[in-house]
Amino acid sequence: MKRKIRTKKILLLEFGVGFNTPTIIRFPFERRTMEYEKWNLVRFNREYPGITLPSQHGLRIMNDWETIKSLEMQNDFQNRFIPVSEDVNDIINGLL
């Protein structure tokens, strides 16, 4: 990726991406946000809003906001990631 993109402030919005094909959007969004300290990720997903972490049994999803914030991750990823499990329609209607 070009250096110019890496150093820009970027907000990635991810809507409803699950685990049918996580290597196309979900995993790259997490990876890039961890790598580039000016990037932020907001994930809207009712079932799997959290981050994907490796475990002894493959991958696990950590959905608990407080636990995510307490982790020490590359480039303070935990402070630039916002998981949203509420219905997006409800959020938009609340904003209007």
Per-chain topology:
Layout: H1 3-7, E1 10-15, H2 26-35, E2 39-44, E3 51-55, E4 58-62, H3 65-70, E5 81-84, H4 88-95
Parallel strand pairs: 1-2, 2-5
Antiparallel strand pairs: 3-4
Note down, in words, how this protein is organized.
Strand 3 and strand 4 form a beta hairpin. The chain has one domain. The mean pLDDT is 89. The strands form 2 sheets. It has a 3-stranded parallel sheet with strand order 1-2-5. The protein has a two-stranded antiparallel sheet with strand order 3-4. The protein is 30% helix and 27% strand. With 96 residues, it is α/β, with parallel strands linked by helices.
- H/E element order: HEHEEEHEH
Strand order of the largest sheet: 1-2-5
Q: What spatial form do the alpha-carbon principal axes imply?
A: globular
Helix proportion of residues, in percent? 25-40%
Distance between the termini: 37 Å
Number of domains: 1
Q: Tally the helices: what do you get?
A: 4
Q: Which regions are unreliable across 5 or more consecutive residues at pLDDT < 50?
A: none
Using only C-alpha atoms, the radius of gyration works out to: 14 Å
Sheet having the most strands: 3 strands, parallel
Structural class: alpha/beta
**What is the residue-averaged pLDDT?**
89
Strand content: 25-35%
Please tally the β strands and state the result. 5
